[in-house]
Amino acid sequence: MPIAENFPEGLKPIGKINHSDGEHFHFMWGPGRADAEASKNEDVKKAYATRGEEQVPLGISGTMIAVDWDSCVADGACIEACPVQVFQWYRTEKDIPAKDVVGQTFDGTGSDIKDERKDLTDKADPIREHDCIWCMACVSVCPPQAIKVDQSNQEFHEKEAGTFVQMESDSANPHAHD
User: Fold this and answer.
1) Cα separation of 87 and 135, whole Å?
2) DSSP for 145-164, written as a single string
3) Residues 1-46: pLDDT tens digits?
4) Under a CB-based contact definition with an 8 Å cutoff, are residues 19 and 108 in contact?
5) What are phi and psi of 153, to 5 degrees?
6) Whole-angstrom Cα distance, residue 85 to residue 108?
7) Which residues make Cβ contacts (< 8 Å) with residue 138, sequence separation at least 6?
8) Less Cβ crowding at N or C end of the chain, within 10 Å?
């Protein structure tokens, strides 16, 4: 099942993944889904078992560039397709369980090379979401359709971050209804 067209409607931030520049971060949205593609993929399940980690619902990492970590099967097509290196394999920077990334700070020094993931428990994280050029290349190549790119979701991010500023009302614009 692809990432919901109406994302992030019906979800709430369950925490942040911070960039070490002190300025940028992105939300992890939940709740996650136990019945998504990664939980049904035998190779992904084996990778979790090999690590001795429980495979649990994770949620969606990012807002304008949203990666459904419950659907992500660590294919890496998004990482390979992105011309501005928005994504990194999070485990190549911090080799911790995905369920533990909320609240962590990343430098963005993890690998952005498709074949350099740690294993199939790794996830493509939009650590440089702020660098996206909206080309949609990642969306078009993701096998489980786990990525949604939508600039208009910035409003959701800003509202949750407490930085949203309401635009002038239509009444202040005499041509709003022409």
Assistant:
1) 14
2) --EEE-GGGHHHHHHHHT--
3) 788 889 999 999 999 999 999 999 999 999 999 999 999 999 999 9
4) yes
5) -70, -5
6) 10
7) 65, 77, 78, 81, 82, 86, 87, 147, 149
8) C
Task: Supply φ then ψ for residue 97, to 5 degrees.
Answer: -60, 145
Q: How many angstroms separate the CA atoms of 166 and 146, rounded?
A: 31
Q: Kindly list the domain boundaries of the chain, sorted by start residue.
A: 12-172
The answer for residues whose C-beta is within 8 angstroms of residue 110's C-beta and 6 or more apart is 88, 89, 90, 91, 92, 93, 94, 125, 127
**pTM, rounded to two decimals:** 0.89
Q: Under CATH, to which class is 12-172 assigned?
A: alpha beta
Beta bridge partners of 30: 12
Give alpha helix (H) positions in the chain: 37-40, 42-51, 77-81, 137-141, 154-161
Residue type, 84: V
Mean pLDDT, all residues of the chain:
92
- What lies within 8 Å, CB to CB, of 25 at 6+ separation is 16, 17, 18, 19
Pairing assessment for the beta strands 105-106 and 12-19 based on DSSP bridges: parallel
Instruction: Name the residue among 7, 17, 126, 122 with its Cα closest to residue 72.
Output: 122
